[in-house]
Amino acid sequence: MKRWLYIAKIPELRNKLLLVLSLLIVYRLIASVPIPAIDIDRIKEFASSNQIFGLLDVFSGGGFSNFSLVALGVGPYITASIIMQLFTMVIPSLNRLYKEEGEQGRQIFNQYTRMLTLPLSIVQGMSTLTLLRSNSVIQEITSLQVITVIALMTAGTMGLMWLGEIITNQKIGNGISLIIFAGIISSLPTTINQFVLNFNRGDIPIYLLYLVIIVAVIYAIIFITEGQRNIPISYSKKSRGALVNSQVDTYLPMKVNQAGVMPIIFAVSLVLFPQVIANLLFQTNIDWVRNIATNINAFLTNQVAYASIYFVLVLVFTYVYTTIVFEPKAVAENLQKQGGFVTGIRPGEKTAQYLQYVSNRIIIFGAVFLGLIAVLPFIMTGFTGNQSLAIGGTSMLIVVSVILETMKQIDSQIIVRDYDSL
């Protein structure tokens, strides 16, 4: 309550929050505008029966099932971000641009990401349209209509990217994460309505168990998200007079989940590609290629296989993204320049090795946790046998993480303004 009173008293912060809310409302309005010449009922049926595209529909806030202007969501932008982040690991000049050239370098890097988003949006739009046509979801459509649909989907994604960057610039949360968050929250009324319609008194014990699991999962998400390992740091402080070579002790916090929700978002973006590619290959007249496509589709249709791929991708991206955001060598060098050192560890290379060792040990817990959260719906479906009672662990993780991060950024802005007013 105190936080909201502070927000009401600070015009600048209040206006930023209202702008973010307004932009999210604009996003939801755009998500309700369907692309013409498409049978939406068929697409809704396809999305509900296909696990992969059902997941895409959740992340697009129903944009895919409605086949709206934002049917692709922010998927192409996320994919472009993945590619650019991976490039920093193999292209030294790009790595220097991103990490060593300050704000100007980051702006150039972000511009490259935007430029890459455009062709990826076109390719993903074409692939999605081809997939829907191959599954008879979309009937006969003219070449002009194909071009129009792809252009509208591409424009929708570029528009979302623009909205996301405006939101991020307000420093009240990550724009892309908030857009995904708004999409997930928008599906809540439909979920509640389905629950009420399917309510059965005989299933009350199962519902109570479901509620207990939800509370436990939310608690676990908060616990892991906020969990951290404190590395003791000492600073030698030389001063004149009586106090000479006094020592200041502090801590270097290392989060258990340093990657946040990004590994899951990355995994969702990539897990769609095998089936899309398989459906494109299925259109060829070469028998052996069609056989490969058929086998890929059959493999991905298996829920255990799909969940396994999803789990492994989350683990891999957790390690990759943590490597990008946390550099032990850079941290060790900064500590040494500031006269700091890890208690009991030599400064420089030894400190970097120690930080890498600690990071590797705690990453595994964060990675496995994210993986289990991602495949939680499959686990729940396996135990209950009821797909409608499957807990959306990924959605819950994103919602809780975005709320925590947004509250932290709001609190930091309040603290800065309180400090400036002193």
List keywords for this structure.
422 residues; 3 strands; three-stranded antiparallel β-sheet; 5% strand; globular; mainly alpha; 19 helices
Description:
The chain is mostly helical and 422 residues long. 73% of the residues lie in helices and 5% in strands. The chain is built from 19 helices and three strands. It has helices at residues 2-9, 11-31, 40-49, 51-59, 75-90, 92-99, 102-134, 143-169, 175-186, 188-197, 204-226, 262-271, 273-281, 287-301, 303-325, 328-337, 349-374, 376-384, 393-420, and strands at residues 228-237, 246-255, 340-342. It has a three-stranded antiparallel beta sheet with strand order 2-1-3. The protein starts with a helix and ends with a helix. The model has no long low-confidence stretch (mean pLDDT 78).
Estimated structural class: mainly alpha
Extended strand count: 3
Task: Provide the helix percentage.
Answer: over 70%
Strand order of the largest sheet: 2-1-3
| Estimated radius of gyration | 24 Å
Unreliable stretches, pLDDT < 50, 5 or more residues?
A: none
Average pLDDT metric: 78
Shape: globular
How much of the sequence lies in strands comes to 5-15%
State the helix count: 19
Distance between the ends: 23 Å
Reported for the largest beta sheet, the result is: 3 strands, antiparallel
Specify the oligomeric state: single chain
Order of helices and strands: HHHHHHHHHHHEEHHHHHEHHH
